[in-house]
Amino acid sequence: RASLPRLDGEVAAAGLAGPVTVERDAAGIPTVRGASRADVAFGTGFVHAQDRFFQMDLLRRRSAGELAELLGQRALEQDRENRRHRFRARAEEVLSGLPPEHQAVLAAYAAGVNAALSGAGAPPFEHVLLRSDAEPWAPEDSLLVLFSMFFQMGDADGSGDSELGMMQELLPRPLFEFLTPAGTEWDAPMVGEAFTAPPVPAPGQVDLRSLPKALPKAARWLPSPEAAAAGAGASGAAASNGWAVSGRRTANGAALLAADLHFDLTVPNIWYRASFVWPAGNPAEGAAGEWRVTGATLPGAPAMVLGSNGHVSWGVTNGMFDTSDIVLLDVDPRDPGRYRTSAGTRPFERFEEVLRIQGGGEERMMVDWTVWGPVVDDDYRGRRRALRWTAHEAGAVDFEILRLETARTLEESLDAAHHSGVPALSFLAADRSGRVAWTVLGRLPRRVGFAGRLPGSWADGSRRWEGLLPPEQVPQLVEPESGRVWSANNRPVGGEMLARVPDGGYTLGARAMQIRDRLFAVEKATVEDMRRIQLDDEALFLRRWRGLLLEILTPQAIAARPQRGELRELVENWGGRASVDSAGYRMVRSYRVLLARDLFGWLTAPCVKAAPGFDVLDSFDQAEGPLWHLVTERPAHLLNPKYASWEEQLLASVDEVLSLYGQDGPLKDRTWGERNMADIRHLLSPALPGAGRWLDMPAEPLPGSDYMPRVQEPSYGSSLRMVVSPGREAEGFFHMPGGQSGHPLSPHYRDAHAAWVEGARTPFLPGPPAHTLRLTPREKK
Predict the structure, then answer these.
(1) Tell me, what's the pLDDT at 375?
(2) Which has the closest alpha carbon to 94: 131, 55, 147, 48?
(3) Contact (CB, 8 A) for 436 and 338
(4) How many CB atoms lie within 10 A of CB 764?
């Protein structure tokens, strides 16, 4: 209890220029008021440290590769992977180059964090349990937190390029192109049309009938079909939904913005709600008015990540843009310490990194760097590889995102987005005039000589990056004729714009299509309409898979194995939603995954042999296109040779479903809710036996699934939902799992959770103050 935050009274703090007031409402949401943006940053650092310091500490340590110092041996492997990026040194370098006003904000934030730590009655409870010190915060630590989002939102090891490259090298060209389409009939771009998937390869190109029947099956390393990715993209990166509706298409004439960000769900939640208030001008010059910006912050950083300031509302989704490339290194055969570049051979730049381990141990590792970036690994053929990534690029990381907080027009918000050094995201905005827009938030690479989809050598200079795409060349869509913009990690545009937003693993457009169609079905949208779309769990994507199951579960098939009749009855009465009481939904979903693994496993057998565990369905979301071609066209030359007919293969996956679920009792009891049980844990609870009931959120069945707006897995899904109109923030709502506090003895540890589970509307703006804490400058001695 000594580590619970002080909520009322007055605290004198060093590093503060003027007084700051922190008003917390009944849900623990703070409104931080100061005389300047820097003072507000101090107050933000103070409340972040009071409520979430352990979370902040993990974020900075993760990026720096310093987790083992806190968590011990279990974190050593992740430290090895992340330390090769040398982000601590990079953060110090970036900090020195920031404009003075941004340096001042980061310095004030760090001072606020340290004031809270030094004034607390005890260290954060997690540090007490781990017998570790809560080390002071430095301004560069906020840049490390920003780097943590580069890890979270993108392909930090080039796995997407790697798997594509392996497939391209090991499979016949027609088969590779068939399995890796750029899009499908599910595409739902805001500009352009859906792509047409490549045709099934001809018998003369690929013929599975010539393969031995003993060829090993693929993807059996996955424990069940329910372990498949939840539509988070090939890289496993965080996903999201977002859209905006013009005032021309709303009931009250005000534009509406909706944001629904999907992340791994942990305790505490990744986001921290807040409202910032400071003067809009220079008081000395008599400027009137104030800025008030409300939304979601990331503990460890002073900026509002998404929210509304009365003039502009903005949200983001993962754009799934390609911001990294794998470089195949031409190592000098006479000297393995050198590699070839367009300017001749160069020695690897070597750095010794010391990984400290809790308890006093340490491990020393050597990190090799090239002119393109760090050496990351050897591929399946033993070739050394480096990673070129925007996170290492000059000018790609900064805190220009602070400019969004004071944008007064759509154009100002778009300009801020184009200059912001953050992971490349889809950016959606609405302004007070009723207009809406989409663009890219963050920086994109400018590639020359290649598209960036496959690994390759850069040694001769024909493949290269020429810095970053200039802001004026970044695509944007402002107030389209439809009055609607949307993003669900799908391909956003077509035509000329598409070349400037490179594909980093766009997800299947099914979720975006369902959102788009729901938006167009509403003539005059309201906040409640937006909430209903966010909570939409109708399984439109699986309708055709249900139809396929019913087609193959014929009377003859059921007569051969009567248990198939029980499955047919459940599929017939599935309800059409990912509802907690539907066993039929669960069966249809699992059938698709099991059949896909069987089909793709044989088609990609050389890849499975080279990289055990390789699974097309889990790696490439667009694989639904070739999968549906196969099960509808049923080409004899692509039939798995262990089956006599396609009917036999299709029924084999039916029987696999029955074997998977039938051994635990009646199929009707194997509901989606049984599987989709919330598993939202505190980061320490797995290591503390018996602590889960104290630290974790309740285990309760949750509706929703992949390929629908309400994305939900046991420990992955909506980390926040908000709907807001700029200038009418009081009419909006915001909810998130868990609560504001990271302290289990706080009343705000889980008090927001029930509203999130129910999808209930809770106010976007903080309520009246329940507690008031005044921070005042400490007099210098």
Answers:
(1) 97
(2) 147
(3) no
(4) 25
